UniProtKB/TrEMBL annotation, chain A:
One of its GO terms (biological process) is methylation. SMART domains: MeTrc. The keyword Methyltransferase applies. This is Protein-glutamate O-methyltransferase CheR. GO terms for molecular function: S-adenosylmethionine-dependent methyltransferase activity. It comes from the Bacteria. It comes from Fibrisoma montanum. Residues 1-247 form the CheR-type methyltransferase domain.
UniProtKB/TrEMBL annotation, chain B:
InterPro entries: CheB_C, Sig_transdc_resp-reg_Me-estase. GO terms for cellular component: cytoplasm. Its EC number is 3.1.1.61. Residues 6-190 form the CheB-type methylesterase domain. This is protein-glutamate methylesterase. Pfam families: CheB_methylest. CDD domains: CheB. GO terms for molecular function: phosphorelay response regulator activity; protein-glutamate methylesterase activity. Gene3D superfamilies: Methylesterase CheB, C-terminal domain. Keywords: Chemotaxis, Hydrolase. It comes from Fibrisoma montanum.
Length: 269, 190
């Protein structure tokens, strides 16, 4: 088990040597991720782990990838997507152009879920989905739109629970153990690296989705990121967070009104 | 005395369980008398992510404030906290919870081991871990972590558990301080 001071040393190394700033990540979680890597990669001591991280750029890639959590699924929390269908998309229908930002999109499953919603609301043709993440590797997966076949059954159930009435398997082509989502969906997506810790706002959006990303940040960083979102949202635009995340601790909360019982807020001031 | 040790030493009591543990909690919760001097944290394996009715069910059985945890909620003595479905529940040094939706551990999210180990890291000897009925080995490593940190470890007596596997594993792997039936747990917690 890694000691608290060793976590600090390692995070400082990442910042000094590579410019990756994890110092404001939620400590208990990052510590667990480091321990997990220490065990997985069988380092005999902390010194060996630290040396490898400091000197081996290839290993660093793996280290950063594994430090961040890239678990995601399609239509996770179907009631959230049902609320997007019923409460959010109708409010965007009149717009000439719809910009959506998926911040911390990981391998892109939620971006495809959103594209399907927009398609079914007949809005995809005038929408653009900006999908960003810290890791170029996961963005590469998202860009290809190729996923394992196995979880599709679960995703299809989630899709139906979210209010989807089409045949979910019509959105992809299956080959062996993989599926590739239709290019009609990918054509409306733009992928780019963006670091919520250090990068700035890059556009104004009608909807920002950032689900189960803020849980990995401490309160100070959460507030910074929420301010960044606030600067990127026009009046009456929407912000969607993960089912256990909240605006409660943030300075921006007065400007937002929660939409129904889901974790969706609308900017009203 | 066991009671003195618990009441005076633990800032947090963790209860972990899987199949068969909801009934135990429905008996245990009404027997707790406010005010509690510790925060009570419950980590159960649950079937569905959308199942919020468990918190409602437990809330009916206690007059103590009970809530399903949201990210960065403060940990307060006298309160009962339930780990939300589909997240690991972690404890931060600043006295707040944090959540983590990384890979399942022991086929489970929330994993009992994850919360127990994280709490042992923060609370050290000021911690009690209780492991109930279940068909999974989750919780054993967590109880060991609590024991190593000097905390108190309690396991439900396998004969009284609906599913004996989880407490049996814990007894094999850790030498728990107590192996108790529900009445025994009630008297220790009081």
């Amino acid at each position: 088990m890694i000691e608290e001071e060793e976590v600090t040393l390692l995070l400082n190394d990442l910042l000094e040597v590579y410019g990756y700033d994890f110092t404001q990540y939620a400590r208990a979680s990052i510590k667990r991720r480091i321990n997990r890597l220490w065990t997985l990669d069988k380092f005999p001591s902390f010194a060996e782990l630290r040396y490898r991280v400091r000197t081996d750029a290839d290993y660093l890639k793996r280290f950063v990838e594994e430090l961040t959590v890239n678990v995601t699924e399609m239509f996770r929390d179907p009631s959230f997507y049902r609320a997007l269908r019923k409460e959010v998309l109708p409010a965007l229908t009149a717009k000439p152009f719809i910009r959506v930002w998926h911040a911390g999109c990981s391998t892109g499953e939620e971006v495809f879920s959103m594209a399907i919603l927009l398609k079914e609301a007949n809005l995809l043709h005038k929408s653009l989905l900006y999908a960003t993440d810290l890791n170029p590797e996961v963005l590469e997966v998202a860009r290809k739109g190729i996923y394992a076949l196995a979880p599709m059954r679960q995703y299809s159930e989630n899709y139906v629970l979210s209010g989807g009435t089409a045949d979910f398997s019509g959105y992809y082509t299956a080959q062996y153990d993989y599926v590739k989502f239709n290019e009609e969906l990918t054509r409306k997506m733009v992928f780019s690296t963006h670091n919520l810790v250090s990068d700035r706002s890059f556009n104004e959006f009608d909807l920002i989705l950032c689900r189960n990303v803020l849980i990995y940040f401490d309160k100070t960083l959460q507030d910074r990121v929420l301010t960044l979102f606030d600067e990127s949202l026009g009046l009456l635009s929407f912000l969607g967070l993960g089912s256990k995340e909240t605006l409660r601790f943030s300075g921006i909360r007065q400007k937002y009104k929660q939409v129904g019982s889901e974790k969706i807020w609308r900017k009203i001031d | 005395m066991a009671e003195n040790r618990l009441v005076s030493n633990s800032a947090m009591v963790l209860i972990g369980g899987s199949t068969g543990s909801i009934d135990v909690l429905l008996n245990l919760l009404p027997a707790l008398r406010p005010p509690l001097t510790f925060a009570l944290v419950i980590v159960l394996h649950r079937k569905s992510a959308t199942d919020t009715s468990l918190a409602d069910l437990f809330a009916l059985k206690t007059s103590l404030p009970l809530q399903e945890v949201e990210d960065k909620d403060a940990i307060l003595p006298g309160h009962i906290y339930l780990a939300p479905a589909d997240y690991h529940l972690l404890i931060e040094h600043d006295g707040t919870f944090s959540l983590d939706d990384s890979e399942k551990v022991n086929y489970s999210r929330p994993s009992i081991d994850v919360t127990f180990e994280s709490a042992a890291d923060v609370y050290g000897s000021a911690l009690t871990g209780i492991l109930l009925s279940g068909a999974n080995a989750d919780g054993s490593a967590g109880l060991q972590a609590i024991k190593r940190a000097g905390g108190l470890t309690i396991v439900q007596h396998p004969d009284t558990a609906q599913v004996a596997y989880m407490p049996q594993q814990a007894i094999l792997n850790t030498k728990p301080d107590y192996v108790l039936d529900v009445e025994g747990m009630v008297s220790v917690l009081r």
